[in-house]
C-alpha cells in the first residue's frame, strides 16, 4: 500500500514540498528508488537508524507496515519525531489508541485506509481523526491523499467497515473480472480476446457510471431489454443472492480487521 501511495505522489503534476523519505528493509528495494526525483530511500538492513533518520524533521509520517510490526516501529521512532508531527496510519486494523499509546503527546495521529488504485490516481481513501488531531491537520492529510484520488472522512468506528468496501473492493472487482474472463474463454475466445472483451467492458461500464450521473440500477435497467438475453443472464445471477453473498464476505473481512486490532 505504501508503494501505491508513493506512485501516486510521484505522478506528473503532483507536488510534495520538502521531498519524500522512504524506508525499506532491504537494500535492493531501496535501490529501486535510486535516482527518483524528490525521493531519498533508506534500507534498515544497511542502517539500523534508517527509520529514525527518515522521520526526523518530517511534518507528515506515513506508517505503512504490517499490523503486527506497528508497535515496535512506533517505539523505535517515537523520540525521533518532531513536536507537532502528524503520524498517519496505513496499517489495517490498528487503532488510533494503539498509535497514541506508543507516541508522544506532542504528536498527532490520523488513521487512513486507501486502496491500490492510488497508483493511477484513482484511490478511494477513508480518513479518521485521532483524539489529538486538529481540523487543520486532518485537512492537511486529506489534501495529501487527494493527490491520489478521493477521500471520505468517517469516525474511526466506521473505518474498519469502510476497509471491507473500498479497501478490499478492488480485489472483489478483479475476482469478478477473472470469472467473466474464464467464461469468455470457455465460449471459444482466446485469452487475449477474452481479456480485451472483459477488461474493456468493466472499464467502460465504470466510466459510464461516473460520467452519466445515473445510478447503477438505472444503467442496469437500460441494458436489460424485457425478455432479452441480458434479462435471462441476470436471473441466474440473482439466484445467487449477490447482496447476501457480499454481506457475508464483507462481514468476514470486518471480523478479521477486529482480530488484527485485538492483536
UniProtKB/TrEMBL annotation:
Single GO BP term: L-proline biosynthetic process
Read off the InterPro entries from this record: 6-PGluconate_DH-like_C_sf (IPR008927), NAD(P)-bd_dom_sf (IPR036291), P5C_Rdtase_cat_N (IPR028939), P5CR-like_CS (IPR053790), P5CR_dimer (IPR029036), Pyrroline-COOH_reductase (IPR000304)
Pfam families named in the record:
F420_oxidored, P5CR_dimer
Give the SUPFAM superfamilies listed for this entry. Answer: 6-phosphogluconate dehydrogenase C-terminal domain-like, NAD(P)-binding Rossmann-fold domains
Q: Where does the chain bind NADPH?
A: 51
- Role of this protein: Catalyzes the reduction of 1-pyrroline-5-carboxylate (PCA) to L-proline.
What name appears for this protein in its UniProt entry? Pyrroline-5-carboxylate reductase
Organism (species):
Herbiconiux oxytropis
Taxonomic lineage per UniProt?
Answer: Bacteria, Bacillati, Actinomycetota, Actinomycetes, Micrococcales
Amino acid at each position: 500500500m505504501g508503494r501505491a501511495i508513493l506512485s501516486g505522489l510521484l505522478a506528473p503534476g503532483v507536488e510534495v514540498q520538502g521531498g519524500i523519505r522512504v524506508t525499506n528493509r532491504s537494500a535492493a528495494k531501496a535501490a529501486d528508488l535510486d535516482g527518483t526525483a524528490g525521493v531519498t530511500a533508506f534500507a534498515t538492513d544497511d542502517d539500523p537508524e534508517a527509520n529514525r533518520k527518515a522521520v526526523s524533521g518530517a511534518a507528515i509520517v506515513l506508517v505503512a507496515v504490517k499490523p503486527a510490526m506497528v508497535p515496535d516501529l512506533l517505539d523505535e521512532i517515537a523520540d525521533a519525531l518532531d513536536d507537532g508531527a502528524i503520524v498517519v496510519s496505513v496499517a489495517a486494523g490498528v487503532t488510533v489508541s494503539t498509535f497514541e499509546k506508543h507516541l508522544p503527546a506532542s504528536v498527532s495521529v490520523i488513521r487512513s485506509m486507501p486502496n491500490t488504485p492510488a497508483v493511477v490516481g484513482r484511490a478511494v481513501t477513508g480518513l479518521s481523526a485521532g483524539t489529538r488531531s486538529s481540523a487543520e491537520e486532518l485537512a492537511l492529510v486529506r489534501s495529501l491523499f487527494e493527490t491520489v484520488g478521493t477521500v471520505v472522512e468517517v469516525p474511526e468506528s466506521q473505518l474498519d467497515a469502510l476497509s471491507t468496501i473500498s479497501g478490499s473492493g478492488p480485489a472483489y472487482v478483479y475476482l469478478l473480472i477473472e470469472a467473466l474472463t474464464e467464461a469468455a474463454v470457455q465460449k471459444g475466445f482466446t485469452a487475449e480476446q477474452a481479456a480485451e472483451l472483459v477488461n474493456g467492458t468493466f472499464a467502460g461500464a465504470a466510466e459510464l457510471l461516473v460520467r452519466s450521473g445515473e445510478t447503477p440500477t438505472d444503467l442496469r435497467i437500460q441494458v436489460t431489454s424485457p425478455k432479452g438475453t441480458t434479462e435471462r443472464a441476470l436471473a441466474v445471477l440473482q439466484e445467487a443472492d449477490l447482496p447476501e453473498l457480499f454481506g457475508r464476505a464483507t462481514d468476514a473481512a470486518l471480523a478479521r480487521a477486529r482480530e488484527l486490532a485485538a492483536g
